[in-house]
Write a structure and sequence with these properties.
Radius of gyration of chain A: 17 Å
CATH superfamily of chain A: YVTN repeat-like/Quinoprotein amine dehydrogenase
Strand order of the largest sheet of chain B: 1-2-3
Largest interface: A-B, 29 and 23 residues
Largest sheet of chain B: 3 strands, antiparallel
Number of helices of chain A: 1
Number of domains of chain A: 1
Helix content of chain A: under 10%
Number of strands of chain A: 20
CATH class of chain A: Mainly Beta
Structural class of chain B: mainly beta
Oligomer: heterodimer
Distance between the termini of chain B: 37 Å
Shape of chain B: elongated
Radius of gyration of chain B: 17 Å
Helix content of chain B: under 10%
Distance between the termini of chain A: 12 Å
Strand order of the largest sheet of chain A: 1-2-3-4
Number of helices of chain B: 0
Largest sheet of chain A: 4 strands, antiparallel
Structural class of chain A: mainly beta
Chain lengths: 250, 79
């Protein structure tokens, strides 16, 4: 099912990408992916995570990805997110940060163990802050579900700034002063991150019989991946109060 | 998505699809075993279920594209 979602997400975004070359994250990414993605593009490289490792492919020649390297990371690797010249990789117990100064061979900059073990944990990053969600229910283990905020000013030594208890978070997305966190059937929670280290809870977006899995802020549109397709919200008018635009069923 | 090419997966393969000409969308590259954990080598195991048995995949026959629940005799593979 995850595979199908990834494919659909890529197909949907391709339509949008034709309209604009703007990167969703202000970094050097060409495409856009969600926080729960298993592969991503940064510059001329495609990066793929599997359960234990990170692989890099040179895609300068679009037709033929050229395998460059494989880096063993750890266990239970789940998600990959590019930001500027770095990769943020989420596993069930840690957040890893890799440098892309040599894009063919990502180098480990930092590994931060979560204090809450065994959780599903996508990561996003912005300026000097990284946000991760830890989901403790379901197949990911027992314990506490939370949004955790790391200060990454010193990239090799991320510092935990804040923990916000949540009900059961999935993917998350960040744009300017807004952070969007999917909470399954409890909707999307919008946080004000004017103070990036102290998210303030604001609006919650819900829809009947809908489970929210992941979000991608893409220009003025928030793309939400839900159980039966996608919901698009306008975040250009008021990013703190996303307005429903349309729903695309699978 | 980059330069009119979609990068995606088909089971464990990395696949590149050229969509620059929407009247002629085509697969331009396929790299095997990039996503080993998407290879469906085992049937899904529902939560709360103990050991499950299944037919051992024979890689000579290609890749596993799905699993069906059936009665089989003397299965060698389990998880």
């Amino acid at each position: 099912m995850k595979t199908i979602y990834q494919l659909l997400m890529v197909l949907l975004l391709s339509g949008l990408a034709n309209c604009t070359k703007e990167s969703a994250f202000g970094g050097n990414t060409t495409g856009a992916g969600g926080s729960t993605a298993r592969f991503t593009i940064a510059g001329n490289y495609l990066y793929v995570v599997d359960n234990v490792s990170l692989k890099s492919f040179d895609i300068s020649n679009n037709n033929t990805p050229v395998y460059k390297s494989k880096t063993e990371i750890g266990v239970n690797i789940e998600t990959i997110f590019p930001y500027q010249d770095k990769l943020f990789i989420g596993s069930s117990s840690s957040m890893y940060i890799y440098s892309l100064s040599d894009p063919a061979r990502p180098q480990l900059l930092a590994k931060t163990e979560y204090t809450i073990r065994m959780a599903c944990d996508p990561v996003v990053a912005k300026d000097n802050v990284a946000y991760a969600t830890l989901r403790a229910n379901g197949p990911c283990g027992g314990g506490v579900s939370a949004l955790v905020v790391y200060n990454i000013t010193n990239i090799s030594n991320p510092r935990l700034e804040k923990t916000v208890t949540l009900s059961g978070p999935y993917g998350l997305g960040v744009k300017n002063n807004s952070l969007y966190v999917c909470e399954g059937s409890a909707g999307i929670r919008v946080f004000n991150i004017t103070n990036p280290y102290d998210p303030v809870a604001g609006a919650t977006l819900i829809a009947a019989n809908t489970i929210f899995y992941d979000v991608i802020p893409y220009g003025n549109v928030l793309i939400a991946q839900v159980n039966d397709g996608f919901i698009l919200y306008d975040i250009g008018t008021n990013p703190q109060q996303p307005a429903f635009l349309s729903r695309i069923m699978n | 998505m980059r330069n009119g090419f979609i990068y995606t997966n088909n089971f464990s393969d990395l696949v590149v699809i050229d969509i620059n000409n929407t009247n002629n969308i085509r697969e331009v590259s396929r790299t095997a075993e990039v996503f080993p954990d998407l290879a469906l080598q085992y049937p899904p195991k529902p939560g709360g279920v103990g050991r499950i048995y299944f037919e051992c995949p024979d890689s000579k026959k290609g890749i596993v594209v799905g699993w069906k629940k059936q009665t089989i005799h003397n299965p060698k593979c389990f998880r």
